[in-house]
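1st attempt posting a full record on here, be nice pls
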Amino acid sequence: MYTKILLAVDYAEKASWEHALPLAVEEARLHGAELHAISVVPEILRLPNLPENYGAGALDHVAKKLEGIVGDGIPVTVREGSVYREILKEAHAWGADLIMMASPKGDSPHFLLGPNAARVVRHANCSVQIVRA
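the predicted structure (as tokens):
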């Protein structure tokens, strides 16, 4: 039985939430679990020739988009950094016992998982459910 489900979402990729979100909501309802969504913004470069506030507001922008996707009542977290590392950090910090995320269907039968999904599966301290997008 799951008590805390973390749903990893890339708001810009509809495939990452189109099928996974309804399944995560259903799984949470089935187990009476809390559902929490996370999205990770790749690290914003801070180069000397860029303005001081370059990238300011990116995390807030993503948070608003994510809130619009998952709807009211589902808390969202937006982190900056390595996608798989930040998902794993959030799962550990929050005490998630299930991570749900989508992985696109590859063109080749040898590529079953994307690199971030594969790393989350390999390194997670809890169950991981991959939803085929």
